[in-house]
Amino acid sequence: MGQLTRLSLVLRGTQAIRKVKAYSSQPQELKVDPEGIFILPANGVQDLHIGIRPQRPGSQFIYLNLVDVEYHQLVSSWLVCVSCRQPLISKAFEIVLPPGGGKGSNKRITYANPYPTRRMYFLHTNRPDLLQFKEESFEVGRGETYTIGLRFAPSQSAGEEEILIYINDHEDKNEETFCVKVTYQ
Question: Buried-most residue among 18, 19, 52, 76 (CB within 10 A)?
Answer without folding.
Answer: 18
